[in-house]
Design brief:
This protein is mainly α. The protein has one domain: MFS general substrate transporter like domains (Growth Hormone, Chain: A), CATH 1.20.1250. The protein is about 85% helix and about 0% strand. The protein has 17 helices and no strands. The two termini are about 40 Å apart. The C terminus is likely disordered.
Length: about 450
């Protein structure tokens, strides 16, 4: 089991590290060095998440349609390849925008779109595979291992990219992206070796014991019908909205934090890239702390601590410019990282608890769609507000501060909503839903 968990972690690392150069380096270069509108950068960075609704369809389709006997592996491979292609093209689009905006934007749509499609294909597939392999008993440990490895990978990737772009030149930036892309492919391939074979054997065994094929419950369902099925469970819908609001705040700062450091404190490309490393170390420590304390505190308590830590972190980042102190800024990053780490483990654990075995891919896809929608909302609204406020006040830093304040308010709303989430109520509603779906599936088979 431990080897399988490590392999799942390698896949998680491979996909995540393709995003690091784009979100921690390229966005800063586009906004600061190339003077590209933050709104345009946000739109391009958020373009992948417009495809997020397909996660539900991908998850459900893979539940029912294996490729060469594998339910998840082919979709992970396709997704990782698309992520790497998008990564390699993205720097070219940024430089083209400076000389030929129309052509550059077109290439940018292609690059970010490819990465986004790849992310949607791979993430829902390997999260479903992780849940299937680990089972309910080991899900918490699997989550901790996967996210521990992912954050470690993000830290190492940020350090590597920071070193390769110091001093910054267009050539050094492109070289860094190529190196990261090939490392991601290698790690992904290593993680996939014989990974699903064990899961496939186990799932077949379970099917033979229960006499229930894994795909029957979802057979014959369209994407729209699956969304309606999820919305019938009040707790599932509520949790979907809760995740979207919380992640809007935690992930909405992705494209703005590094440019803020550059604008407010004059930090170099290397130093703003290191922000990701600092954030990553704090997330990592928080994940370890959350894993060690598992069982001593409830998942909702841990989620609440994570939310408050991130909220205070945003407030420190906002006031850091008023005092002109980078130590306050870095203190905010530390708390934001700790809050993100605690929230990640706690909410993912709650997410897996609110997932039924009969519709694993469908529910994982829905939660993944919530993640993507939140990134879309946070990035686009954040970038647009930054530009509008900066134009009104003639100071881009004020634009960043307003956005960070709104993200802090989103966390406050999510903390209020957290108290009304109930896994037991979700499971109670799911039992009724499963009975209905099975009757519908049998009816479809008879027609």
């Amino acid at each position: 089991m431990f080897i399988k968990q490590i392999q799942l972690g390698l896949i998680h690392v491979a996909v995540a590290m393709t995003l690091v150069p784009i979100n921690s380096t390229l966005n800063r270069v586009m906004i600061k060095e190339l003077a590209i509108s933050a709104t345009l950068v946000a739109l391009l960075a958020s373009l992948p998440y417009l495809f997020s609704p397909i996660q539900v369809a991908i998850g459900s389709f893979s539940d029912r349609h294996p490729v060469l006997g594998y339910y998840r592996t082919p979709y992970i491979v396709l997704g990782l390849l698309l992520c790497v292609v998008g990564l390699l093209i993205s720097p070219q689009s940024a430089f083209l925008m400076e000389v030929n905006p129309a052509y550059g934007i077109s290439v940018g749509i292609l690059a970010f779109g490819a990465w986004g499609m790849g992310f949607n294909f791979s993430s829902v597939s390997y999260l479903s595979l992780a849940s299937e392999i680990s089972g309910e008993k080991y899900r918490g440990r699997t989550i901790a291992i996967m996210w521990f490895m992912m954050i470690t990978g993000i830290i190492v990737t940020a350090i590597l990219v920071g070193q390769m772009v110091d001093p910054y030149t267009p050539n050094s930036l492109q070289r860094a992206f190529i190196v990261v892309g090939f490392i991601a492919l290698f790690l992904g391939a290593l993680g996939l070796i014989k990974l699903e074979a064990c899961c496939k054997d186990n799932s077949n065994l379970l099917e033979s014991e229960s006499h229930e094929p894994r795909q029957r419950a979802n057979e014959g369902y369209s994407w729209g019908e699956m969304i309606r099925d999820i919305s019938k469970n009040r707790q599932a819908t509520y949790f979907f909205v809760y995740l979207a609001i919380l992640l809007t705040a935690l992930l909405g700062q992705d494209i703005l934090l590094e440019p803020f450091g550059a604008e407010a404190f004059g930090l170099s490309v290397k130093r703003t890239t290191q922000i990701t490393s600092i954030w990553g170390v704090c997330v990592l420590l928080a994940i370890i702390l959350t894993g060690v304390s598992e069982g001593r505190f409830t998942k909702k308590q841990q989620a609440r601590w994570g939310g408050w830590s991130a909220l205070i972190g945003f407030l420190l980042i906002i006031i850091s410019r008023f005092f002109g102190e980078t130590i306050i800024f870095y203190g905010g990053i530390v708390l934001l990282g700790i809050g993100t780490g605690i929230s990640t483990v706690a909410n993912l654990s709650i997410m897996f608890d609110m997932t039924t075995k009969e519709h694993m891919g469908m529910y994982i896809g829905a939660w993944g769609m919530s993640n993507a929608i939140s990134r879309l909302m946070g990035s686009v609204l954040g970038g647009a507000l930054r530009d509008i406020i900066a134009k009104i006040f003639g100071d881009p830093v004020i634009g960043y501060q307003v956005v960070f304040f709104l993200l802090a308010l989103c966390i406050m709303v999510s903390l209020i909503m957290l108290g009304n989430i109930s896994v037991s109520e979700f499971k109670k509603n799911s039992e009724k839903e499963i009975d209905f779906l099975e009757r519908a599936a049998l009816a479809n088979e008879g027609t």
